[in-house]
Amino acid sequence: MAIEKVKAYFAEKGMAERILEFDVSSATVELAAKALGCEPAHIAKTLGFVDGEGCLLVVAAGDAKVDNRRFRDEFGMKAKMLPFDQVEALIGHAVGGVCPFAVNPGVPVYLDESLKRFEIVYPAAGSSNSTVRLTLSELEQFSGAVKWVNVCKGWREEEL
Fold first, then answer.
1. Mean pLDDT by 10 residues, the chain (160 residues)
2. Helix/strand/coil (H, E, C) string of 58-72?
3. Which of 1, 64, 69, 97 fits 155 for a cystine, CB–CB 3.0-4.6 Å?
4. Which residue, 67, 61, 26, is CA-closest to 41?
């Protein structure tokens, strides 16, 4: 199970105690925010996109939406979400628990600037009822992010 991979990964970093598991689902931004008692924006959702024969991940704030033009400008391709039936095979985590930790080799992770508004964020931890509490610098470090990108909309003051 993917959460076991994530737990082992964080145990290697001495941070296994940071993983939170719930008795309820946290498979969506709204459910995760409800389980945590926080605003949906603080949930760091991990989105998987088709990239040739593989995929890439973008971690964004829970209230952000992918901007197709920005995505194309950044990655040189259309933003096409991974088909449901390919998510686990390509990423290593099932839908509802997709996170940027302990992913399959060769899956690049990018962090969206929408997250930079927060000191603490809550990405999933490999299952549909888990999360991990991280600072932005911890998220950057433990996700192995390639870089920060600006591919989302709907979260900036001027866009609301």
1. 91 94 96 96 98 95 97 97 96 95 97 97 96 97 97 84
2. EEEECCCEECHHHHH
3. 64
4. 61
